[in-house]
DNA sequence: ATACCAGTTAACAACGTTGTTTTTAGTAAT
DNA sequence: ATTACTAAAAACAACGTTGTTAACTGGTAT
């Protein structure tokens, strides 16, 4: 392991001069600086984080608590956040340990901030864990233990419903994952129910198409079952992008055209890579809005040393050809 | 941040005594030790890794290079490896940066070992990266730059083919992801081709069912297309668990029974959670064999400071009711 | 009493780095 | 030629920890 002192010896200067030279301090003359930098490169010098963070009390590192790798749901988010933080000089580290252990680890490592993916609050602690490091949570902002970035899924679905009603639809169905108690999915269902209630005074029975998962095949199966039962609808609000893909397959099989026979609005955060014949309308908070919000919040926590408020992101709608006005 | 010195002051002893007490050294009298430990707990003391690893040159941490979070393929592996390392007192950290940056980070962090998930060697460097830390790779052991743990996918499929031939099958098909150049998948295809060639002298045209991915729906679609075209087979070797699920769906739709009409052997590493009516035969290296091998290799690298050889794991077959003998 | 133990604890040095202070050398002003 | 000043570099202290060495204890043997 080559240290700052080896460089000093090789360059014939004191080691503190080397330190300054490598940090590009104006306290060392350009020629000397250049010589030192060259020697450092030549020797393949790598600064020792332990030593550095011992004195600076910083590690330029952000820890991400991610207890459920299996659920690839947030993969896209993490990738982007990782990139954005990198642009600001921070390194991202993931821990797939359970929340408590992960936070502990990150505290020991003297990470500068912690981002916690709070998967449906399933196994979250009910009292804030002791931490010297500021923690930001991504999940549900209802009675959060930590400042939280939340996506208003309920309003997103509601927005979809309202939009469809406003262009003349009356018979609207919602397809979503209802296989398990999952707060995130429940929010969507109740968004649908409330959205309908707000527009139709008399209580209409909600048309719910229950899928048993969030995969393409789940959507395909659920929609097919719906159609097989002879049920019909003029518009479908879908709880996820993959489900939507399944729905489209099923509709195709039944020779139902989009949007002539059925209009579709899909919940989604992914920037649309239009792989469909008919561009699909989307509601949701765009992924880069989410990631920028998170990144900014993290950087604020680190630099301003101030605890940010919880933030609820409101959805946008992007209308496309998949929606047909009915009047 | 409470340090060892704060404890020393509170306990009225020197700080070196505190250090020894907390590390349970025999050099400090039990009563003193107890008192110190109590105070430490009370103050919520957390050792500073930076300081510790500065002097000990260890961090009790293993870094995992995982550039493609999106591909959830290895999630199960990582989870298990994480647990096993934890049992040995090591913390696992993941980096989703690209290989070079990740290795750099881990070097700076003075991680004790690095595990690299070498996704189909797609963007791997072609010359070993400079690293002070031993690196183990999981992927393909063919001309590896680092000691590598490899799974013999080719022989796994071959084993499946041979087994089917030996129980009387002649018309055998292989379904796999042939959508993209992926070394891992290619290995399986050629395992099939070779396996057939070894048993049938005359060159029979291989029956390949090309799927356009590794998801359930891809298998379903590919198999359905195969059947729709009026083709038949008495046995299917499937390249992945999810594909197999899709195949089964398709067979069900065509009222073909397993194993009466079609026998199935599936490639898989996952310990079988029997969700099927008919238990499926499996080939592959069980996941816990893979993870234990990796964990052991990592620990060896750390403790013995010796570079291990590359290891190729040989597959096992687990015959179940999904295979019917034909004579 | 003096010297010599063992058992405890205190003091010290070191790890590699950064920020501050002191020294050195070179130049300008008296 | 002495002083005053400035730029550059060296020396020093500190960060929190661990391993080593030195300094105390009280007791036992001389």
TrEMBL record, chains A, B:
Residue span, HTH lacI-type domain: 2-56
SUPFAM superfamilies for the chain: lambda repressor-like DNA-binding domains (SSF47413), Periplasmic binding protein-like I (SSF53822)
InterPro entries from the UniProt entry: HTH_LacI, LacI/GalR-like_sensor, Lambda_DNA-bd_dom_sf, Peripla_BP_I
UniProt KW keywords: DNA-binding, Transcription, Transcription regulation
One of the record's GO molecular function terms: transcription cis-regulatory region binding
The name this protein goes by in its record: LacI family transcriptional regulator
Lineage of origin: Bacteria, Bacillati, Bacillota, Bacilli, Bacillales
């Amino acid at each position: 392991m080559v240290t700052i002192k080896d460089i000093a010896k090789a360059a014939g200067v004191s080691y503190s001069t080397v330190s300054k030279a490598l940090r590009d301090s104006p306290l060392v003359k350009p020629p000397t600086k250049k010589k030192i930098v060259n020697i450092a490169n030549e020797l393949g010098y790598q600064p020792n984080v332990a030593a550095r963070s011992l004195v600076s009390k910083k590690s330029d590192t952000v820890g991400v608590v991610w207890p459920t790798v299996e659920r690839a749901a947030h993969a896209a988010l993490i990738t982007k956040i990782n990139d954005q933080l990198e642009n600001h000089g921070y390194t991202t580290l993931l821990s797939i340990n359970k929340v408590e252990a992960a936070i502990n680890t990150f505290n020991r490592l003297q990470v500068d901030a912690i981002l916690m993916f709070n998967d449906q609050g399933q196994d979250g602690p009910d009292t804030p864990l002791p931490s010297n490091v500021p923690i930001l949570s991504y999940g549900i902002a209802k009675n959060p233990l930590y400042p939280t970035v939340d996506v208003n899924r309920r309003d997103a679905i509601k927005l979809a419903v309202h939009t469809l009603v406003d262009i003349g639809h009356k018979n609207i169905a919602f397809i979503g994952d209802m296989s398990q108690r999952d707060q995130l999915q429940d929010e969507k269902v109740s968004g649908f129910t409330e959205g309908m209630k707000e527009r139709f005074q008399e209580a209409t029975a909600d048309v719910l198409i229950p899928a048993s998962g969030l995969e393409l095949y789940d959507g395909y199966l659920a929609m097919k079952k719906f159609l097989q039962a002879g049920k019909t609808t003029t518009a479908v609000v879908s709880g996820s992008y993959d489900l939507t893909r399944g729905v489209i397959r099923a509709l195709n099989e039944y020779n139902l055209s989009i949007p002539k026979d059925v209009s579709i609005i899909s919940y989604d955060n992914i920037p649309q890579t239009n792989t469909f014949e008919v561009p699909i309308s989307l509601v949701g908070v765009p992924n880069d809005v989410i990631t920028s919000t998170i990144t900014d919040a993290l950087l604020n926590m680190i630099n301003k040393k101030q605890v940010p408020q919880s933030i609820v992101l409101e959805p946008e709608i992007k209308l496309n050809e998949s929606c047909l006005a009915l009047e």
